[in-house]
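Re: the pair you flagged

First of the two:
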Amino acid sequence: MPDSNAHAGAASGAKGKGGAAAGALTDSRTDESRFRVYTFVVLTLGIVAAFAVGTWLPFDGSAKLWWIGPVLALAFLLAEQLGINVDVRSGISWTISFTEIPLVIGFFVAPFEVVLAAHLVAGIGTLLARKVAGRVLYNAGAFLLEITGAFAVAGLVTHAVGGSSMPWVAALAGTLTAPLVSTLLALAAVRVLRRRMRVSTAIRLTGRILVVGFVNASVGLSGYLVISNTPQAWPLVLAVFLGLTALYWAYSDLLREQRDMEALSDVSLMVARSGQQAAARPASRGEDLVGGVDVREWATIAERIKDQLAAGRVVLRLRLEADDPMRVVVAGDDLPAIDPNADDPLLRLPGAHVRHFRITEANPDVRAALLDRGAQEALVVPLRSANQLLGIAEAHDRLSRWRGFGKYDVQLLGTMASHLATSLDNRRLLATLRHDAYHDPLTGHLNRPGFQQVAKDPLRESAEVVVLRIDLDVFSTVSDALGYSWADRMVIAAGRRIRDALGPDVPLARLEGASFVALLVDCTNDNAHLVAERLRVQLSAPYPVDRLSVEANAMIGYASSSGEAGEVDVDGMLQRADVAVRATRGGDEVRGYVPSMGQIFLRRFQMVTQFRQSLEDGHVSVHYQPKITLPNRQVAGVEALVRWVHPEFGRLGPDEFVPAIEAAGLIGVLTSFVLEESLRRVRKWLDEGLRISAAVNLSVRNLGDEDFPAKVQRELERFGVPPELLTFELTESGVMSDPQKALPILRELHSLGIELAVDDFGTGYSSLAYLRQLPVDQVKIDKSFVLGMGTDLGDLAVVRSIVELGHSLGLTVVAEGVEEDVARDQLEAMGCDVAQGYLISRPLPEDRLEAWLQARTARSPGRHSETVLTLLT
């Protein structure tokens, strides 16, 4: 190309005659048709302009100067080959050449026709030598317009400045016209081919071309004038020319480094952003991913690499897992079909270095591989991480350089390959983490977050979606009896049965333990019930685990979105299915959710969330039930019992709200409240001279709190209550559920001097074995035996046995549930120590308890100057 200018390249990406070319142009038929019309217009305008300028500036040279034409052609050809390519934007390159120098000299030594012919011969010859044959007609038209425009402007300037007074002005103006014309034609070609290029970029490119053209023209003009007047000065002119060439090469390297850094940054950002987007969304069905990134995003990355290398084609072969086949992503020319089973030497390169292959220098195997790809040369680099092959990157046929890929291209592709390998490795790790985040490691099914993600779209799109909740009731039993490894085997087997029963397309998740959940889309309630019944039968069949056969039972609850007003969320459906499963404990093993079920759990939820506020508002109080000694009928103490009058639900029984509060982890708050109220009451009695103890119930969770004894000691010291006036009652099952944890707490409490009592004694199955080990002072006979003494000889025998056992161990025996005189008399005859029940008094609030004590007891002095209260008969 005869100047620092721009031309549109071939649609395949081959650059036109050396300037800022539009590479990587679209291959669509529409674009080709548009460009053919544009080529016809440019060529026609060039021919017409050449005839017009030739008529205006007729040839007046001498035949003796025949050698000027070949010399100019050679000069143009040499200047073209010394051109320096700089990629300035995606698919756009700018060639810094020295064609302005022979052009400006041509104004002085040759007529228009000779310069035009020399330029055409050099330019078209260069295109043919570079095998860029697809745009010869367009470039021929551009050559014509450049030279005709240059001579036309020079002629106009000559007439304007008065002939030959300043011929160098006309030559300089005409020389600058040539690159300006070629730049405008190239920008128009970019527009015709619908390639994006910002206006600011076009203006900067045009300004750079004019500046370089002016410098080149000035150097050529000055050199010609100096040599023409002083022939001995040609070494100086040559030195200036070489210095200018060195500056251009340095400038080219700086621009290329800048572009390479921009390209590396672009590729890294594209991969990072695509990875972040892939991580932010769960994988959808049918989504085409490689390394966790959409294939279309990899195609964009490949296109960016191709543009930066000015390659005809870039091929990325990517593999996420070692056993997976490679996915091929192509940017640029279509890749010919290659037998995947063929032995391809370009796909088994060792190391991670870039290899440069040329068809003229390659061995037969590599030459055949290049021919299979339809390429003359290729840069190939494996993408490796920790000696594992993640993929291969290939770049075929450098198009914007006559001499093909250079060392800068090799360095750039190597650096990009390193970035891509790191990105692929990170994407693989991200895909693994993403899979683990949404899948259960034991069964391989979805976990709760994975199920929530998968269920969102069906719940939004379908009117009839059913959530099945499946619970196996043997998990904890098998874990305790055989160990967790055996229980895990059962869970895996159950997961397989559910998958086989529901099919591979039904979303299935393991929630926790032996609980599963499945999503049925476009399913009615009736069909859901049938599916659940069939599934329950299959899950309830015995499980062969090694040489054992474990019996199991399944409970299934389901909730349907049909008939629901408004948008239904996943968590709400899961909660309803869970409520339905809990309802199966009433008898039926398959239950569908109905709104009335939700009211029960909503009530419990409100109780738990409102408990603390109720404590502060005074809705929770402590009632006291007196206990008397037998047979002297003295008031020995009271049992503190909590009561809650809810502003919405009314009076709540302890059996209703205590389990919910305990499950919510608030039992410590409740115990502290009752303990504080009881000690305050005992302190008040002590101030009145009454020595009455208070009994407070403990929970299993209290016995698991290592700091509990210290808290109790602080409360005793705070109110100044002797430890023996405080009794803690604990259930038999609570102690025996985890005796290793409960015993140290009980021993520490007992060492403080606090009385300990086993409540509901006789209902457990292991208490007799542990009773001697427990540091307890009292046993309380469960009221169910006391109530049945009058009609059931067995209950009577149990009560007698407990009394005898307690006394043999030196324990105080307390009977609760005493409601009749006969029962009191029987207990007194057996030697029972303390009685408690409705016969004596119901649980009373503090003010009514004071009235009861005053009305039903007589006061007498005790052994320690305290007043003793005796029940009046």
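Second of the two:
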Amino acid sequence: MENQFRRLLKLGVCAAVLGAVPASAQDTQQMEVVTVTGFRGSLEKALDVKRNSASAVDTIMAEDIAKFPDLNLSESLQRVPGVAISRDAGEGRQLSVRGLGGGFTRTLVNGMELLSTGGGTDASGGTNRTRTFDFNVFASDLFNQIDVEKTSMSETEEGSLGSTVKLYTAHPLDIDGFKLAASAKAGYNDLSHTYSPRFSALISDTFFGGKLGVLFSGAFVNRDLLDEGFSTVRWAGGASPVANGFRSVSGVSYNGTALTTTDFNSSAASTVFHPRIPRLDKYVDKQHRTGFTGSVQYKPDDATLFTLDALYANFGGTREEQFLESFTFQQTGVCGPTSPASCGINQVDIVGGTVIEPRSGVRELVAGTFNNVDAKSERRHDKLMTEVYQVTLAGTHSFSNNFTVKGFLGFNSSVFANSEQTTMQFDQYNVQNYKYDFSTPFPTITYGSADLMSSTAWQLVEIRLNPNWVYNRDTQAQINAEWKVMTGLTLKAGLNWVEAKNRAVTFNRSNGTNASRGAVLPTGVPALSTVGMTETFNLPSQPSGNPTKFFAPNIMAGIEALHLYDSTYQSAQTVIANTTWVSPFKSTCFTTAGCGVFNVGPESALGSNYTVQENALGGYLQADFDTDLWGVPVRGNFGTRVVQTIQNSLGYGVLTTKSGAITTNTITPSTYHRVYADVLPSFNIVVEPIENLLFRVSGAKVMSRPGLGSLNPGVTLSVSGNKTATAGNPEIKPYRAKTFDLSAEWYFAKGGLISVAGFYKEVGTFVQTYTSPQSVFSANPWGLPDSQADAACGTLAGCSANSVVWTFSYPINTPGGPVKGIEINYQQPFTFLPGPFDRFGAIFNLTLVTSKIKYLNASGAVSAVDQLTNLSQRSWNATLYYEDDALSARVSAAYRSKYLTQVPGRNGSDVEGTAPTLNVDASITYTIDENWALTLEGLNLTNQRQSQYFDSSEMLSFKHMTGREFLAGVRFNF
């Protein structure tokens, strides 16, 4: 008893040490709890998991994760064959596995599906309202094993077309006795010139003769980031140009022939593309990432084990976006009280320029000099937070040597809050001698007669308030049984119940109607001096010739001066004559008291306010076998999973009625209910005809449920900038596919592997977002009355139901198509070489994927046949490492070829896409003794830029850099 008391006292003291770590923690060294001998040992252990698995799986073990130089979990996963990542704010965010994007991949944490969503920049997808898991919420060090399961087994829950990613946190009974690990790191970014602290710790111990185990871990990272570059927010022209085109054209050369206004007019068959919003960008991110895990295990005897796991993560901070830009090239009509009636592209004169024809029928005004261009200085402030909780309880009991029952209960919650999203815009009108040049890899934009550093020259023109939230909640229960019928044959059966609820909430500035209020300012504000509401922003990394600094709105000063967060400020609202609004939302706007001019509500963003609830009940029967056929070892499994899904969707729309001269607009909920079922057979067979040479063959029917945002039955009208109507489609069919895999694996030496895997997926249907050409509002596909468009437009000039400016977007099912590819994997420690070269080793994998997907237009006709979106046809990863008793070093490279993001593209393009990337990282660890080690890491050593393109001619749409990061630190283990 005295001994147990001492152990409890020791645990309490160490817990106090852990408590000294800031109450936010990520990037922990808990990975070291897995007993392996260095990085090489962890690779060998991961190969053992791969070799012994019946399904095709790739594994990263504890030390493997802990010692890769990775900012978060997704960057660890990019080392796995077939896995590519997309990035936001300089770090990995989402996965693509074997060409299928994150929406086709399920992520399990300690056996339970978790949907973790965050908010990125608009260029990286913005707020995540899909099933895609945002891996940047977590640091890789919170987990001690990651499995990427690429073929299906009946015992694994449905929902994946690409893969199932299984994340496991550390467990105390896997550790021999007491363990304490801690680390501290300091990071430096060479673009932002900022320092970032990182701390982590883990403590674990066992009691009562190893029957009870307790483990805690925590980590914290603080990161300041500069993200700088330029963008165009697509290009305009082509088949869907800005109406009426430029006012005049002179001096523009095209194949030796002078262009005329007709070439740029919307009626011209050969309209020239030009940047929609040419701009210089600067993002400033301040992030903090916190994580904790806890585990209690009780094993009263060898037949019984109970495990209680808890996980907490908090990823948040602020992002400040600054743009020096022009909206002129995408605008028509009046855009300000002091501008001429022909404001927008209609007033612009082209003084000179350069037009190229990169492909037949596509011409681009890549450079030009212009008069009467309106300059804009825009500032956006975001306050962001993702908070994740998960608790799971698992129990296993063996009633005999041949019969075991496993039970599981779990609950998780993920809440994303963009509680502040505030945008202010300043304009200067009629700038002369404005120039842009996008003919080079690093564009230049100059602002001619504009006075960028005069607070009196700028005029406040727009204020947007767009806070938004996403709530995810899952509850799950499982019961599974295993019966060893005889040697080499085990039957498995189980039931699984899941209730998942997703709710999205979006607010805009609102006066109780569905009219946009962003450009509506209180009386006197447009003439208000911007002095006191400006601040200077520097652009140190722009190419020579671009402005190096400019005045931008000071959001914090504007909030105070204009009472932006006071929903009662100037409560008197303009009443729409002969119109009455009725709403189910709580709002003072529908009372005689009115509401403030900066009130926010969901009324003007109805399509982004919805709830989707799914209840899934599934069961499976599976047979595992392990035998010899004619002296050849054969093992694997076959079985069937049956699942029923009940879907309930809730959205909002506007019902318009008239009684005499009075129009009544009622915001009404709309609901949709459906039930569908799937029968999903699968098999996995492993044959070992020669020792250490394995052949695998697998096949399955699989399904993945459609994106959550796609199931919204509501419609949103937006008249800020483009005039759009956007809706979901609750009748979207799930993705269903037949898959087949064939592979060969040769384990030619200890820690050595050469493998080749081919895979084929025949996907029955995909989902694409269709966006219509510009038309009048009455052409909308939902039968909405023109009165809804007129209500949304309000008094906004150039906006009405009869204007040919409306586009309609909604998801549709497409015929689907095949996705096929090959993976090549090689890893080997160079122990066959003489010293010191025997301390080296290498890992390399290559994935080649292709697809042939049909994309439809609104009439259901095939408009394009191209690659699947988010599919990179080539990706590879390579690592060269060195390890001895004291020194461990490695350098890693990850390449991803370009991929499409939208087909057909918007604004008249055939496609939109993302350019290829090559990221190089390195790390060195020097072990002083068994307790202490020093670390040095470098990330993004080539300062890889993130680029996006418009059209297959690859017009530049977005190009940013975030700089290199260097981290130095110390590790402690006891």
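The two ends are 24 Å apart (CA to CA).

-B.
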